[in-house]
Structure formats: C-alpha cells, structure tokens
C-alpha cells in the first residue's frame, strides 16, 4: 500500500510539474505577445503622431507662404488674415510637437524651425506694411523683398530636416519592435523545447519507478500471502476455542443480569425513603420559619416598649425641671411674703390687712414647696422604675436575639439535612437509572455474545476460504511480476 501511495504522489507531482510548465509557457507566450503588441501599438501611436505633427507643421508653413504671396499679388485683407491665422496655427503646432518629441536631435531641429520661423516673420512684417500702402499692382516691384527669400529657404530646409529626422525615428522604432517580436518568438520556442524535454524525462522517470515499485509490491504481496495463509490456519483453530469461551461468557452475563435487577429494586426503595425524609425536613423548615416570624414580632414589640420607656424617662426629667422651677418660685414667694409681713407691721391699720394676705401667701408657698418635694420624690421613683424596666427589657431582647440565632442555626441544619437528602435522592435515582441502563446493556451484551458465537462459527468457515484465497493471491502476484518485467534493480 505504501508503494502504491508513493507512486501516486510521484504521478501527481509529474502531472503537476508538466501542468506548471504548460502554464508557464502559456503565460510567457501571452506576456510576450502582449508586450510585442503594446510595443507595436506604442511605436505606431507615438511615431505616427510625431510624424503627422511634423508633416502638419510643414503643411502649415507652406500654406502661410502661399497666403503671403497671394496677399502680395492682390493686397486683399482676407489673405493677410489667412497668413496671420497660419502663423498662429504654426506656433501652436510647434508647442504641441515640442511636448511630444523625446529625441534630442529632433528637439534641436524643432528649435531650429522655431528660430527660422521667427526670423522669417520678422522680415515679413515690414514688407506687409509697405504692401498695404501700394495701390497698383505695377508698384509691387518697389517692395524690395529680396531678403525674405533666404529666410524662407532656411525655414523650408529646417522643416524638411525635422520631417526627415522624425521619419528616421519611426523607422528605428519599427526595427526595435520587430527585434522584440523575434526575441519573444525565440523565447516561446525555447520554453516549448524545455517543456517537451521535461515531459519526456518525467515519463521515463515514472516508468522506471513504476517497474521498481510494482516489483517491490509483488514481493510484499507474496510474503503477505504466505503470512495470510498461516494466519488463516491459526484463525480457524482460534475460532473453535472462541466459541467455547463465548458459551461461558453467556452464562456469566445471565447471572450479572439477575444481580443488576436486584440492585435496581433496592435503589428504588432507597429513593422512596429519601423522598419521605426530604418532605419531613421541608415541613420542619416551614415550622421554624413560622417560629422565627413570631420571635421577630416579639423583638419588635420589645423595641417599642424600650422606646416608650425612654420617652417616659425624658418626660419625667422635663417634669422634674418644671417642679424645680415651681419650688424655686415658692421659696421666692415665701421670702417676699416674709418681707411683706415685716413691712406691713410698720404700716399701722392698713398694714395689718396686707400682713394677713402676706401670711396666706406664705402658707400657700409652703404648701407649694411641700407638694414640689413630693412630686420630685415621685419622679425619682418613676425614673428608677423606668431604668429597671429598660434594663429588664434589654435583657429580654438579648434573650430573644439568642433564641433567634438558635432558630437560625436549627433552620440551617434542617436545610442542610434537606439538601443532603435531596442529593441522596438524586444519587439514588441516578443509581436506579444506571442500574436499569446496565440491565439493558447486559441484555444487549447477552444478545451480542450470542451473535458473536454465531460470527465465530462463520469466521471459522471463512478462515478456510481465506487460506484458499491467499494461495490464489500468491499465484496472481507471480503473474503480475512477469507482466511488468524485471522491476528490481
């Protein structure tokens, strides 16, 4: 199998290499053709534009000379306008052609044309002005324009030289394009020859590897056939032993099936007891919650009692302050009554009446002071009782808090019990489910064991057939080796 896969990889590699060379040749051919086409297009476009520009420049120059001569003959303004228009077009064409030309010699010739045109135009200007003054054709001889002819000849010669140079450039570009096309064709031919050589080498290499690998594979097949024949004999012997072992396994599985069913019944009973325990724990948890609610209400009432007692203590203190004020007023009233009695004793008959009133006021002040002392004593008793009640209430509140914490602990304990019972119940259900699944699995294993015993018998029969097939395979491998020739080197 390894030899077949190796040859398959080599075949794929050879095909891939051949395909790669084909793609390279195709890409190179397309690139070369595109390069040649672009070069030719560039030569045709650029060179043609430059040559056409040079020819247009020459044509415009000749048209200007013709229009100038017509103006000299008839003196009409339209020919002068045509002459000026031709010069404007000529200058515009010079600017455009200067931007297109890249050859230095051609640019120098263009500058020569521009200089010659400027000199020619400078000589034409005074001649044109004198022609405007001449009314009769017989007076044209007075223009004396002999100096214009050399300038015109220089302009025509420089323009002709420029056209000739641009034509030479076009011929050179065409020659270069043809050379590039020739190089591209040679490159395509060389690549094609390389591809043919590579294909031939790959075919020879694959053929050699095929003979070698097939010969090696045939040797392995012959060796494997002998081993397969021996293994088939051992398999037939082992099949009989396996059939007797499967009979014992079937008996053991039947006993395991009975045990699994008993475990499932026990797990179901444990699950039922766990559910009852969980219900009892949840009921105890509910009772403790109700008791906690009652304790919370008692704590709230005790807190209210403490607040009322504290308020009562504050009121008794306020009353004590009022009693102190009353006692102080009684003492001052008593002092004033004594002073009034002393003053009344020196006032005669009128003073005695006032003394009686002062005495009554003093007695009232004494009774008021006595009542204030009694009220103060009662207030002190009330304060003592309030303090005692507050202390007792605080002790009761602490006892209520301790009881609440104990109930919290008991509640947590019941909840943990409920959780543990729930966990136990879940585990019991899982055990029950697992046991049922195990019972089902055991039944399936029992069926599989029966099938395995049947397959074992069939394997024993097929082992004999395998032995015969191995012998036939050894014969076929010899025929294959003869077919491919000497494959071992």
Can you put this structure into words, describing what you see?
The protein has 489 residues and is mainly alpha-helical. It has two domains: 2-226, Four Helix Bundle (Hemerythrin (Met), subunit A); 258-440, Helix Hairpins. It is 94% helix and 0% strand. The chain has helices at residues 2-74, 77-100, 104-133, 148-345, 349-484. The longest helix has 198 residues, at 148-345. The two termini are 20 Å apart.
Would you summarize the structure shown here?
The protein has helices at 2-74, 77-100, 104-133, 148-345, 349-484.
Keywords, separated by commas or semicolons:
489 residues, mainly alpha, Four Helix Bundle (Hemerythrin (Met), subunit A), Helix Hairpins, 2 domains, flat
List the helices and strands and how they pair.
Layout: H1 2-74, H2 77-100, H3 104-133, H4 148-345, H5 349-484
Helix pairs in contact: 1-2, 1-4, 2-3, 3-4, 4-5
* Structural class determined from secondary elements: mainly alpha
In the CATH classification, which architecture of the largest domain applies?
Up-down Bundle
The best one-word shape is flat
State mean pLDDT (0 to 100 scale). 77
Euclidean distance between termini CA atoms = 20 Å
CATH class of the largest domain: Mainly Alpha
Following the backbone from N to C, one meets helices and strands in this order, namely HHHHH
CATH fold-type name of the largest domain: Four Helix Bundle (Hemerythrin (Met), subunit A)
User: How many structural domains in the coordinates?
Assistant: 2
Share of helix among residues? over 70%
Rg computed from alpha carbons, rounded to a whole number of angstroms: 68 Å
Unreliable parts: none
Tally of helical runs: 5
Strand content: under 5%
Give the number of DSSP strands: 0
Q: Please summarize the sheet with the most strands.
A: none
């Amino acid at each position: 199998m390894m030899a077949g896969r190796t040859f398959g990889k080599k075949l794929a590699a050879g095909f891939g290499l051949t395909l790669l060379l084909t793609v390279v040749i195709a890409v190179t051919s397309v690139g070369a053709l595109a390069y040649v086409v672009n070069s030719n297009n560039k030569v045709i476009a650029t060179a043609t534009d430059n040559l056409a520009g040079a020819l247009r420049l020459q044509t415009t120059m000749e048209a200007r000379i013709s229009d100038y001569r017509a103006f000299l003959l008839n003196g009409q303004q339209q020919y002068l306008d045509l002459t000026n228009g031709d010069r404007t077009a000529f200058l515009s064409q010079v600017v455009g052609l200067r931007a297109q030309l890249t050859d230095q010699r051609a640019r120098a010739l263009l500058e020569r044309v521009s200089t010659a045109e400027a000199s020619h135009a400078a000589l034409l200007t005074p001649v044109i002005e004198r022609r405007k003054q001449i009314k009769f054709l017989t007076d044209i001889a007075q223009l004396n324009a002999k100096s214009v002819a050399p300038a015109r000849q220089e302009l025509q010669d420089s323009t002709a030289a420029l056209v000739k140079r641009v034509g030479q450039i076009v011929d050179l570009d065409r020659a270069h394009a043809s050379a590039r096309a020739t190089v591209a064709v040679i490159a395509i031919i060389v690549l094609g020859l390389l591809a043919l050589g590579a294909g031939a080498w790959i075919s020879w290499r694959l053929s050699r590897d095929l003979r070698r690998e097939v010969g090696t594979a045939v040797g392995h097949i012959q060796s494997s056939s002998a081993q397969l024949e021996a293994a088939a004999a051992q398999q037939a012997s082992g099949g009989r032993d396996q059939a007797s072992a499967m009979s014992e396994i079937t008996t053991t599985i039947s006993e395991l099936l009975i045990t699994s069913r008993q475990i499932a019944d026990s797990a179901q009973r444990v699950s039922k007891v766990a559910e009852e325990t969980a219900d009892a724990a949840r009921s105890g948890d509910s009772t403790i919650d109700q008791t906690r609610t009652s304790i919370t209400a008692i704590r709230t009432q005790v807190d209210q009692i403490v607040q009322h007692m504290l308020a009562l203590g504050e009121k008794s203190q306020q009353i004590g302050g009022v009693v102190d004020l009353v006692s102080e007023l009684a003492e001052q009233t008593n002092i004033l009554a004594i002073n009034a009695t002393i003053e009344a004793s020196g006032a005669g008959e009128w003073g005695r009446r006032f003394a009686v009133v002062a005495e009554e006021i003093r007695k009232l002040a004494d009774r008021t002071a006595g009542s204030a002392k009694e009220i103060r004593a009662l207030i002190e008793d009330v304060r003592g009782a309030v303090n005692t009640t507050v202390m007792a209430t605080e002790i009761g509140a602490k006892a209520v808090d301790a009881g609440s914490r104990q109930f919290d602990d008991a509640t947590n304990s019941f909840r943990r019990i409920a959780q543990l019972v729930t966990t136990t119940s879940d585990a019991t259900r899982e055990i029950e489910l697992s046991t049922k699944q195990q019972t089902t699995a055991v039944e399936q294993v029992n069926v599989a064991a029966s099938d395995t015993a049947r397959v074992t018998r069939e394997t024993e029969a097929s082992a004999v057939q395998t032995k015969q097939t191995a012998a036939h395979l050894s014969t076929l491998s010899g025929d294959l080796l003869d077919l491919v020739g000497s494959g071992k080197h």
